[in-house]
């Protein structure tokens, strides 16, 4: 990045402030769209931070909301300018989940549940290569390599000594049993997972098959929390053609409660570490 400004987070903060100004004015997104002769969907995308916001957009919206304090307008205009900077991930070209990467880059903590595979932040390079190639069979080798490089770059959030990401991962046993690549590759992956689970800011728990039905059977999701109280938590659900971001307090609360149930039903940290190590030994036979 050209500076320490995270454009994704800047867009979210700016969008939240614009929504607050609209609500203070007592206007609906549809009414604002009619005034500016734009689509309602554009106003919604501006407010949820999914679309770049130009300084002209900010000026026009402040005009509609009759914001008279020039300091507020100037501050919002600067946020719009910052939001159009490029994050480190832009140097890799078009990344489908760039919004998520921007959020992850600025997050203070991340809670992940994955029923099928080892989460990206904990993958070895070889595991990531085999996983991406298998999941995207029609993808060119150059694109696979680019995605692997991005994944390895993301892992700096947990390898850095300065303000590392607090990561809590709950895995289904299936993620450990599914042979991605080959058995040797899986052994290396699980041995690394055991090592990473001993980092003070990384927690790994496993839900064994014998636990039966549990709240995570609906699929993978992640909960991101941020150091600034002004930034609301986000639930991220990865999709095939598009991803889902849930930011409403009620939605985040429901997924957080579900995550607490998952942690309670999973093996504790020491049991999970031994469980992973035992499976890694099975792959060595």
From TrEMBL:
GO terms for molecular function: DNA binding. CDD domains: HTH_XRE (cd00093). Residues 18-73 form the HTH cro/C1-type domain. SUPFAM superfamilies: lambda repressor-like DNA-binding domains. It comes from the Bacteria. SMART domains: HTH_XRE (SM00530). This is Helix-turn-helix domain-containing protein. It comes from Streptomyces muensis.
């Amino acid at each position: 990045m050209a500076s320490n400004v995270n454009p994704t987070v800047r867009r979210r903060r700016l969008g939240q402030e614009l929504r607050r100004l609209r609500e203070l004015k007592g206007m609906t997104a549809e009414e604002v769209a009619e005034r500016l002769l734009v689509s309602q969907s554009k106003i919604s995308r501006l407010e949820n931070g999914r679309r770049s916001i130009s300084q002209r957009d900010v000026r026009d919206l402040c005009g509609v909301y009759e914001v008279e304090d020039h300091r507020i307008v100037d501050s919002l205009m600067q946020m719009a300018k910052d939001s159009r900077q490029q994050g480190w991930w832009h140097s890799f070209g078009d990344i489908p989940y760039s919004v998520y990467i921007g959020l992850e880059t600025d997050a203070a903590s991340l809670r992940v549940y994955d029923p099928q595979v080892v989460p990206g932040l904990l993958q070895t390079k070889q595991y990531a290569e085999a996983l991406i190639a298998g999941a995207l069979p029609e993808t060119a080798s150059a694109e696979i390599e680019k995605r692997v490089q991005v994944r390895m770059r993301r892992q700096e959030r947990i390898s850095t000594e300065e303000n590392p990401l607090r990561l809590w991962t709950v895995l289904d046993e299936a993620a450990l049993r599914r042979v991605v690549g080959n058995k040797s590759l899986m052994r290396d992956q699980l041995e690394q997972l055991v090592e990473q689970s001993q980092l003070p800011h990384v927690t790994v728990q496993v839900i064994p098959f014998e636990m039966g039905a549990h709240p995570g059977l609906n699929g993978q999701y992640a909960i991101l929390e941020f150091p600034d109280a002004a930034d609301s938590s986000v639930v991220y659900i990865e999709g095939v053609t598009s991803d889902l971001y849930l930011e409403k307090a009620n939605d985040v609360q429901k997924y957080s409660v579900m995550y607490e149930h998952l942690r309670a039903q999973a093996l504790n940290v020491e049991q999970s570490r031994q469980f992973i190590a035992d499976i890694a030994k099975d792959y060595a036979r």
